[in-house]
Design a protein that fits this description.
- The structure is a single chain.
- Helix content is 65%, strand content 0%.
- With 96 residues, the protein is mainly alpha-helical.
- Helix 1 runs antiparallel to helix 2.
- It is globular, with a radius of gyration of 13 Å.
- The N and C termini lie far apart (27 Å).
């Protein structure tokens, strides 16, 4: 597939990003990096909605998001879905 809205990987990743954004929005309590996570999730969604993005950029976004919300166990399943969605675009070459 060539990417865009018809690409299953794009739809699945956008769905996972949307779920994580919703869960982050309703998360009670203080999360110091909530704004950073939300900004990066928005950037990730924008990247994917414009065709097939570069895998290294997807992985960088994942690291930023995980760093911001990684210690919140309630978000772990949704974060795993985002990671799996990113993995569907391909692996980074070994040695990086």
């Amino acid at each position: 597939m060539t990417g865009g809205a018809d690409d299953v990987r794009v739809r699945e990743l956008r769905g996972a990003v949307a779920r994580l954004r919703r869960q982050l929005a309703v998360l009670p309590g203080e999360l110091p990096d909530r704004a950073a996570a939300d900004d990066e999730l928005a950037a990730l969604d924008a990247m994917v909605s414009h065709g097939i993005p570069e895998v290294p950029r997807l992985r960088r976004s994942l690291l930023l998001i995980a760093g911001a919300v990684g210690s919140v166990s309630a978000l772990s399943p949704a974060l795993t879905e985002v990671r799996e969605g990113i993995d569907s675009f391909g692996e980074l070459p070994r040695g990086r």
